[in-house]
């Protein structure tokens, strides 16, 4: 009888291990909309635990070890820019390695609970951006100086058309159906002067989220990048938001300028817009400074 019970216990633990392994394989998530990395570590007690209390404590410890492992892997896989991951930077810099290791150890527990068969789950998070204990503060160095935004290309007139998108900047419990984007006309040779942010529509192009994106014009000139911005602002809130719903872009404000990316560069991390659209963006930014405020959203 005891032998049968022991076999049943072993089978139950093996089933739990298989279940936990399947869950863990899909637990890590980098949410670029919320700017956070979330993992869920899973653990089971050893077969030789003295009692139920010790079994639960050991399962919790195993779950935390699993969560820390997943956090480390997820952080290393984050793209700092279109060509460099955190792991690449750690290989080249002991200082970055020390910071990233401290970030992983400082991961915050947001939820934990016991699961069937004596297992335990621990959910942890680290922010992508934030003044301290974030991926950005661990890997992004302060530039030696800020660079001015480039001038407009004088031989190309700024674009005179865009679309109007109604962005809901005050989240509500029940949202009304979004209004369809409408075409609008912009003044020739001068700024409209009322745009609150920039939305770059990259849908269908396969845009890859990165921490430090660059917007270029079709001539290859960068018009928006890390060195154009205040370092503390970039560390605190990032350079751009990512969304799949063009009407869900509160970072760009209630009246964003919307332009369409014509292509992507550098492993699909950097949007490219037409020279005319780039000139319009720079012209409007001279008035309302939405680029300086990092009020930029990319639609994937």
Q: Please, could you describe this protein's structure?
A:
The chain has 300 residues and is of the alpha/beta class. The protein contains 7 helices and 14 strands. It has 2 domains: 2-139, no CATH class; 161-299, no CATH class. α2 packs antiparallel against α4 and α3 packs across α4. It is elongated and about 80 Å long. The N and C termini lie far apart (60 Å). 38% of the residues are buried.
Short description:
With 300 residues, the protein is an alpha/beta fold.
Low-pLDDT sequence parts: 1-26
Average pLDDT, to the nearest integer? 87
Structural class of the helices, strands and pairings? alpha/beta
Distance between the termini: 60 Å
Shape: elongated
Physical arrangement of strands within the biggest beta sheet: 1-2-4-3
Helix count, per DSSP? 7
Strand-residue fraction? 15-25%
The oligomeric state of the chains shown is single chain
Which H/E pattern describes the elements? Answer: HEEHHHEEHEEEEEHEEEEHE
Task: Profile the largest sheet.
Answer: 4 strands, antiparallel
Number of strands: 14
Domain count: the total is: 2
Taking all Cα atoms into account, the compactness measure Rg is: 24 Å
**Estimated helix fraction:** 25-40%
Topology:
Elements: H1 2-24, E1 29-31, E2 36-43, H2 52-76, H3 86-92, H4 94-105, E3 108-115, E4 119-127, H5 135-139, E5 161-164, E6 182-185, E7 197-201, E8 215-217, E9 222-224, H6 231-237, E10 241-243, E11 256-260, E12 263-265, E13 270-273, H7 275-288, E14 296-299
Tag the structure with descriptive keywords:
4-stranded antiparallel sheet; 300 residues; 4-stranded parallel sheet; alpha/beta; 2 domains; single chain
